Amino acid sequence: MPEPALLGAMAILFLAAFAVLIVWKVLLPVYAFNYLLKRKDPDAEIFLAEDMRTSAAVLAPPPAPGARIPWIDTVSREIAEIISHDGLKLRAYFAAAPGESADTVILAQGYSGNGKQLSAFGQFYYEEFGFNVLMPHARSHGSSEGRYSGFGWLERLDYLRWVDWARERKPGARIALHGLSMGGAAVMMAAGEEPLPPELRAVIDDCGYTSMEEELRHQMKARFRFASAGILKAASRICRRKAGYSFEEVSAVKQLRKSRLPLLVIHGEEDDFVPFAMAKILFDASPLPSPALKEYYPVPGAAHGEAFAANPEMYKKRVAQFLERVYGVP
Q1: pTM for the whole thing?
Q2: Structural domain of residue 230, as residue ranges?
Q3: How far is 203 from 39, CA to CA, in rounded Å?
Q4: Which residues, 6 or more positions from 92, have their beta carbon under 8 angstroms from its beta carbon?
Q5: H helix or E strand, kind and range, residue 157
Q6: For residue 110, which of 77, 181, 275, 287 is within the disulfide window of CB 3.0 to 4.6 Å?
Q7: Residue 189 belongs to a domain
Q8: Is the pLDDT of residue 126 over 50?
Q9: Taking a C-beta distance cutoff of 8 angstroms, is the pair 99, 182 a contact?
Q10: 154 part of a folded domain
């Protein structure tokens, strides 16, 4: 018979190993899932209350002194609503073009942002290109419903529903999808769906990622100096059960391989959040000939999401030239 002290030590080791296993296999994946995908802004009613006060295509109320004013709050706008494929009420800002143009851009926000995030983009499309501008709050962001983010995968279908809304709102529209970061991944993934409406003419990705798994592995290595396939797989199973999709499904590369939509890939060369190397992989995934229908625009000196701020005039020029080749900019 082992000595009591030895038995006690063995019991402690067993319990410690069991605790480590529980932490590694259960608690860390649950934490990772909730940290990544659970709604970050439970006070969405604040957005909704503000938006509903200006839903009749009137100017937003004056801002507080010294406050920065998003462009969308300076123009006549309305609040659009749709129901997603899984029953969520999604909302967007819509600013009708000052002229008679039906051409429309739909701007797809980044992770943890909101519909106002791309106001600077909306401004140049509206003022310089004469486009109608639709700026949705992504699911689980802003005043849109949803408990979990789709990391671009569920949102790809949401943006196609917004395309349908834009077609009805402005018949004859030529529509472009332009997304930033998660929004960039979402619009690229939307491009791989079939069938697509003929009015959807182009996709513009700014610093989107190749796939959810690759981006999460990169983030784990950058933040924690390791990347555990086991934690990601366990978190993916939780995601499948709670949010309806698995990490493995979320791939802009796979979707682009099926796409025939013209594509512009923009990425800052100093991006270490979504690695710059992903941009060329995404560009090469599109089967379209280059440069007639797809274009690659690396931006020197730009970090994540800062390509426009790094060189606004060149950014607008490259977008304008791309759209002119695709269908002409007024």
Answers
A1: 0.86
A2: 1-37+225-245
A3: 27
A4: 79, 80, 81, 82, 115, 134, 135, 136, 137, 162, 165
A5: helix 153-169
A6: 181
A7: yes
A8: yes
A9: no
A10: yes
